[in-house]
Amino acid sequence: MSAKRERAVLVLPVGERDHVQGPANAAVTLVEYGDFECPHCRRAYPIVKEVQERMGARLRFVFRNFPLTELHLHAQHAAEAAEAAGAQGKFWEMHDRLFERQFALEDEHLIEYARELELDAARLARELAAHTYKAKVRDDFMSGVRSGVNGTPTFFINNVRHDQAWDVEALLTALEGVSEGVR
Q: What is the pLDDT of residue 4?
């Protein structure tokens, strides 16, 4: 038996179903499994933004929902609201709004954010009530479970789980190390 521990890998490859920022041919892909109500994900949010800015076109970023519903009462609906916004072409705007206003994730706030983002708020409200995007959120969640995700945020760099620190410098070092190896 090898003393080396196997690293978890991303089971579901990045594809059409994902929300992606950055070019498809970027040297490095960073996937985050996150929860809109998780305080650790809120801390990671500006870190990822800075890393994206510093790496530019060398980085492709993907966000997948992993709501920890037993800990966070509003995480599921927040994820569904982000997906509903995505169906109207504004996933990333809602993603940002949810992290920036993590203190207010009740349904009335989610609908208010839809109005602020100039979405069809009535449609979003109907879709939340009908749980239109519950299956999409569950698919994200289950792909995370199959990939070894057990908390948030969990990051994968080019399909391998990043088990180290995720402050700006540590994450940037890991991403650039992979980027250098790709050239």
A: 47
Distance, CA of 84 to CA of 37 (rounded, Å): 17
3-state secondary structure of 107: helix
In a domain, 147, yes or no: yes
Mention every residue, 6+ apart, whose C-beta is less than 8 A from residue 50: 168
Question: How many domains in the chain?
Answer: 1
Asked whether residue 1 is domain-assigned, the answer is no
What is the rounded CA–CA span in Å between residue 53 and residue 111? 30
d(CA 75, CA 114): 16
* Secondary structure class of 19 (helix, strand, coil): strand
Quick: pLDDT tens for 27-66.
999 999 999 999 999 999 999 999 999 999 999 999 999 9
Q: State the Cα–Cα distance between residues 30 and 59, nearest whole angstrom.
A: 7
CATH number at residue 122: 3.40.30.10
